[in-house]
Amino acid sequence: MWKEAEDFLLRDKKIAPLVIKWGSCRIKKRPQKYYFEDLVASITEQQLSGKASEAIFKRVRTLLKKNSSSLLSPIAPKDVEKVKEEELRACGISWSKAKYVKDLGEKVSRGEVNLKRLGTLSDEEVVTELIKVKGVGRWTAEMFLMFTLARPDIFPLDDLGIRKAMEKMFGKKLDKPEILKKSTNWKQFRTVASWYLWRSLETT
Hints:
Blueprint (H helix, E strand, L loop, with lengths): L2 H7 L6 H7 L12 H10 L5 H15 L12 H5 L3 H6 L4 H16 L12 H8 L7 H10 L12 H11 L5 H8 L6 H10 L5
Helix pairs in contact: 3-7, 8-9
Protein name: DNA-3-methyladenine glycosylase II
Catalytic activity: Hydrolysis of alkylated DNA, releasing 3-methyladenine, 3-methylguanine, 7-methylguanine and 7-methyladenine
GO molecular function: alkylated DNA binding; DNA-3-methyladenine glycosylase activity; DNA-7-methylguanine glycosylase activity
């Protein structure tokens, strides 16, 4: 789905080697039924490394689906309502994250946050809607825009990995305004560019 983006990025001498090395971007738009689960995952995985975050979310998911008739169905607000903060904490997340997951479930259940309409909103409107939830800031909203909605031009400026990758690419320390300015070379397709920047930090 990203051929146009990849063809565009191949014309940029800085990022083209990454496109060639890593092949097609693997970001795909997620069905609406996974929106809530993806947000739970984003909250539980904040500020954690890849393997650790995956293990913790797996425990959280198992807990939330323990009383469900279908373990394969996506996490729903009703699943969050059935568990206590103490149970979420026992999965390995902080007390604050446990509260954030509960707050997400409550706000979606009450209709204060309308996940069903997110796909119809602009990028900034999605951010505005999601930050109504405690613990969901701009970074978390941007991860949702990128990996759930597959919006093409999201550039998570506050992401540490992105900043490290940009400094590695340009061979010097860069402040945020400089990073943002350089990212305009990839405007229209900065989601895909970001995916390649993250890949550049992998050792294999």
